Amino acid sequence: MKSLRIIQTKIPIGIEKPIRFLHITDTHITRDDPSGGRRREAVFNVDYENCAEDYFLQAIAYAKKENIPVLHTGDMIDFLSKGNFDFMDRWFADLDYMYAAGNHDFCHWVGRAKEDYAYKWEKIKEIAPHVKSNLYFDSRVIDGVNFVTLDDSYYLISDAQTEMLRAEAAKGFPIVLAMHTPLYTKAFADAVMESNPCAYVTGAPEELLARYPEDRRKQQTPDEATLRAMQYIKDEPLIRAIVTGHVHRNLEDTVAGKPQIATRGSYEGDVRECILC
Ligand SMILES: [Fe+2]
Ligand SMILES: [Fe+2]
């Protein structure tokens, strides 16, 4: 059994008393593999059998020992199954956590359905009973910092979510915005496209989208509401940092001067202890 790697990252958001949280993302639990074999299990248990589960248990044990909240940015499970829900129910029960939905949290079986708006709103009924956070949009103020989680897992942010974000900003607290999919930055896109035909980011610009295969371009092209949301996130001074997953890499950059981080999937043994300061 290997030990979890806990990366320590200071995130400057202009507060006097530092606040810590544990960023976990992309856990990809694979119980009851619908293929009937070990096809998806094998993808996410890279170090040893059941490492995705084991690394997650090591991570939450650390958060509990340190008495810090967990901020999970999605893909807790790889697909919807009773075994995966049982795992979530058991380990989320007494965990202090906030949750931003990932694309796999709505996924019946990866690659087998058109993952569009209607699909998500059908599948959300299966996953939502197993997560404390509202999967569309949620917020929680901890020690004067407002942690906002919102769903951008299909590369889209709605006007309704932006309005809710505005209402959160109206509370006056500095905001840490947590979303599954990172916002486009050149550094994020370059890093992901080293080994992928697309960047898996929200708000990719046209010239980048032009390099994607057609199916990925259709999937990841932002609509007008998403572009408005991105502009608001860039312009709102109270939004101080962006915490993301989905790209299965440890990346740090800035969006309009605000730190944006992504953390490698916890199934690969990495989590990030963030120190807001
Ligand atoms: Fe993932
Ligand atoms: Fe994802």
Protein architecture, described:
This protein has one domain (10-276): Metallo-dependent phosphatases (Purple Acid Phosphatase, chain A, domain 2, 4-Layer Sandwich), CATH 3.60.21.10. The protein is globular. The protein is an alpha/beta fold. The protein contains 9 helices and 11 strands. A hairpin with a 2-residue loop joins strand 9 (251-255) and strand 10. The protein has helices at residues 39-44, 51-66, 82-92, 117-127, 159-169, 186-193, 206-209, 214-220, 224-235, and strands at 5-11, 19-24, 70-72, 97-99, 137-142, 145-150, 175-179, 239-244, 251-255, 258-262, 270-276.
Question: Can I get a quick summary?
Answer:
By secondary structure, the protein is α/β, with parallel strands linked by helices. The chain is 31% helix and 21% strand.
Instruction: Give the helix/strand class.
Output: alpha/beta
CATH class wording? Alpha Beta
* Alpha-carbon Rg, integer: 18 Å
* Average pLDDT: 95
- Helix and strand succession? EEHHEHEHEEHEHHHHEEEE
Fill in the CATH topology: Purple Acid Phosphatase, chain A, domain 2
What are the bound molecules? fe (ii) ion
Largest sheet: 6 strands, mixed
Tell me the number of structural domains.
1
Percent of residues in β-strands: 15-25%
- Uncertain runs: none
Biggest sheet: strand arrangement: 5-6-7-8-10-9
- Under CATH, the homologous superfamily reads Metallo-dependent phosphatases
Proportion in helices:
25-40%
The helix tally amounts to 9
| CA distance, first residue to last residue | 34 Å
Tell me what the CATH architecture is: 4-Layer Sandwich
Number of strands: 11
3D shape: globular
